[in-house]
Amino acid sequence: MYIAYEELDDKLKNKITNLTVTHSHDHILSLSKDLHRRQNRGEYTKLPPVVHPLVRIHPETGKPSLFLSPHTMTGIVQLPGQQGITLLDKLIAHATQDRFVYRHRWQQHDVVMWDNRCTMHAVTPFDNQTQRRIMHRTTIVGDEAPIAA
């Protein structure tokens, strides 16, 4: 998300620098009826909506990056309704252009690591009838909440 941010024009960078976004895990359930059926809603009601900066500063590198999470973002605090959603949609479209995307072609024994603080990731479909996927997640604790740009 570093490069996606860097390649925004200066006018847009200035516009979004101090904006904050509301994130709600409950929003995930509204996007997928299948997930809604399979999940225990109680897990999500324990997680109230939170507000994070749209542009965050990485605590290790000091570099700004976009902080986008399409499945949890419900709006921009400073921009009412559709105006905020439209801006988020524009930023998501920008950040997910092929030139900013790494697609991994899995091979047996691969290990892939990324820094969630400056990465937006998504699962790609696979044939769960003929393929087996084993995933382990490791999270390193220690960061403060995201730092605004």
- Quick check: average pLDDT? 83
User: In sequence order, what are the helices and strands, one letter per element?
Assistant: HHEHHHEEEEHE
CATH class: Alpha Beta
Radius of gyration of CA atoms, rounded to a whole number: 17 Å
Strand order within the widest beta sheet? 2-1-5
Gap between N and C termini? 14 Å
Give a quick account of the main beta sheet: strands, pairing sense, barrel closure. Answer: 3 strands, antiparallel
| Beta content | 5-15%
Question: Percent helix among the residues?
Answer: 25-40%
Q: What form results from the Cα inertia axes?
A: globular
Summed up, the domain count is 1
Description:
This protein is of the alpha+beta class. It has a single domain, classed as Clavaminate synthase-like (Double-stranded beta-helix, 4-Layer Sandwich), CATH 3.60.130.10. 30% of the residues lie in helices and 13% in strands. It has a 3-stranded antiparallel beta sheet. A 3-stranded antiparallel beta sheet has the order 4-3-6. The mean pLDDT is 83.
Task: Please sum up the structure shown.
The chain has 149 residues and is of the alpha+beta class. It has helices spanning 2-6, 10-16, 25-31, 33-38, 41-45, 81-95; strands at residues 20-23, 50-53, 55-57, 64-66, 73-76, 147-148.
Descriptive keywords:
Double-stranded beta-helix, alpha+beta, 6 strands, 13% strand, 3-stranded antiparallel beta sheet
Question: Topology, pairings included?
Answer:
Blueprint: H1 2-6, H2 10-16, E1 20-23, H3 25-31, H4 33-38, H5 41-45, E2 50-53, E3 55-57, E4 64-66, E5 73-76, H6 81-95, E6 147-148
Antiparallel strand pairs: 1-2, 1-5, 3-4, 3-6
